[in-house]
Amino acid sequence: MNINQYLEEYPDYLRGVRDASENTVKEYLHDVQRYLDYFNSHVSADPEKFEITPKHLRNYVAYLRDVLLNDNTTVERRFHGISAFWQFLYLQYDYSTPVSLKNCGIRNVIKRTPTQPISEDRYKLILEAIDHGLSKIK
Amino acid sequence: MDYQKLSEFRYLRDTTITLVARETRLSIQSIIQFSNKNIPRFTSSQAVQIFQDYFASRNSLFSNNNLLFPTDEGKLLLPDKYRQNFKRLLSKAGIDPLALSPMLLTDVHIKRILELQFQFQRPIYQMYLAAALIGYQALRPVEVAKLQKEDIHIDEEIIILRDTKSREDQYVIIYPTLIKPLKNYLAHIEAGEPLFIRASNKQWERKDVYRAIKNFCKHHGFRNINPRRFRATVATYMINNGIPINYVSKYLRHRDAATTIRHYVGVVSKKESRHTSQAFHSILSGQANSYHDFDSKQADGK
């Protein structure tokens, strides 16, 4: 498969089919590019030999964690763009069926901590300071 | 020292000296030696207003200084330094600085100098407005940064938010205490102009909102605050004070109330889980028949 040709079509697919925002397009393209860089340096630099397989993804995740010291949140982020690209190849070019991170055998637990609200007393003090500042606007 | 405050102070100081010289015909040499007790008398209301603004600015920066018109370092301002500043002021106001002394300024000149005041105050106004839009309205930083004059409809008391997270235009009702300051602020802004701009006249970006909140917190001594926490705080405050979740959801502009529950109801669970634990204990130990019974007993106890 010629990766360069697909990479050219991928942004249009994201915008047109997945209704992705420009930020998402940019990020997803970046994710694929990072995977491509890894593939070129660790597997094969030949664009015709590019492929996405569970085995390569496992190695890529290991590379992200061990070499680049990425945390699980970043690993998950990187995977989003690659998954969407895999899905694009599957739908448009009958490429192999996409496999989720979990089904690739990769364990990736993320602890999400909700944003802590400011205490009510402190919040009121902040609002007082804001009101004081607003009163100066003439 | 806060650069924005200092910049406004310099403008107000030099404008006040100019107005004093023009109205009293005293020499610059004598005006710059005024002490705190030499409060000049003005004939025009504009001059009185500028002096009041100057005095407030001076007192916030140099409260223990005896000089009425100190330098940035709190020292005696030299006449040459004033003349240099005066020329710069005229140049900024688009007035030819050659052969002009404060005494020769016309009313039109003064008007143009006074119109500069907003330029110097704008960074501070922007900081408070951004904090208010985030602190009261729970707007997202990027939504604040993108606001234009046309998006604020004071008469209808709404703000139109363009290209939001859901990629559609949304509106928010302007919080009551924000109406007057927004109206005053908008009066200084040209049509089609962004609400918030950098010193380079470019429209703010998301990071500028973060910077403004950081400056606001630094200025007022609040630590560990960022724009994200404001949105969570507004939601939590509303939920804690009994505002129905669908109303809170509408206020935060969540398409689905489940989003509000998922992100913000969990946050209040520390307080609520203690209450729930006490209720459970009361029911098990026979002190209350039901949760409502426990709740009403608690309310009576208060």
Mean pLDDT of chain B: 87
Structural class of chain B: mainly alpha
Question: CATH H level of the largest domain in chain B: which superfamily?
Answer: Intergrase catalytic core
The largest sheet of chain A, given as strand count, sense and whether it forms a barrel, is: none
End-to-end Cα distance of chain A, whole Å, is 65 Å
Helix amount of chain B: 55-70%
CATH architecture of the largest domain in chain B: Orthogonal Bundle
Q: Report, as a whole number of angstroms, the end-to-end distance of chain B.
A: 47 Å
Which stretches of chain A are poorly predicted, pLDDT < 50 over at least 5 residues? none
Structural class call of chain A reads mainly alpha
Rg of chain B from C-alpha positions? 26 Å
As a percent range, the share of strand residues of chain B is: under 5%
Percent of residues in helices of chain A: 55-70%
How many E-type strands of chain A? 0
* Overall number of domains of chain B: 2
Treating each run of at least 4 consecutive H or I residues as one helix, how many helices of chain B?
14
Q: Tell me, what's the shape of chain B?
A: elongated
Strand content of chain A: under 5%
Rounded mean pLDDT of chain A is 90
Which strand order do you get reading across the main beta sheet of chain B? Answer: 1-2-3
Describe the protein.
The model of chain A has no long low-confidence stretch (mean pLDDT 90). Chain A has helices at 3-16, 22-42, 54-66, 72-93, 120-134. With 138 residues, chain A is mainly alpha-helical. The termini of chain A are far apart. Chain A is elongated and about 65 Å long. The longest helix of chain A is centred in the middle third of the chain and has 22 residues, at 72-93. Chain B is mainly α. Chain B folds into two domains: 3-115, Orthogonal Bundle (hpI Integrase, Chain A), CATH 1.10.443.10; 121-299, Intergrase catalytic core (hpI Integrase, Chain A, Orthogonal Bundle), CATH 1.10.443. In chain B, 58% of the residues lie in helices and 3% in strands. Chain B contains 14 helices and three strands. Chain B has helices spanning 3-24, 28-31, 45-61, 79-92, 107-115, 117-135, 141-145, 176-186, 206-220, 227-240, 245-252, 257-265, 269-284, 291-301; strands at 152-153, 158-161, 170-173. Chain B has a three-stranded antiparallel sheet with strand order 1-2-3, with no helix packed on it. In chain B, helix 6 (117-135) crosses helix 9 and helix 10 (227-240) runs antiparallel to helix 11. The longest helix of chain B has 22 residues, at 3-24. Chain B is elongated and about 90 Å long. The model of chain B has no long low-confidence stretch (mean pLDDT 87).
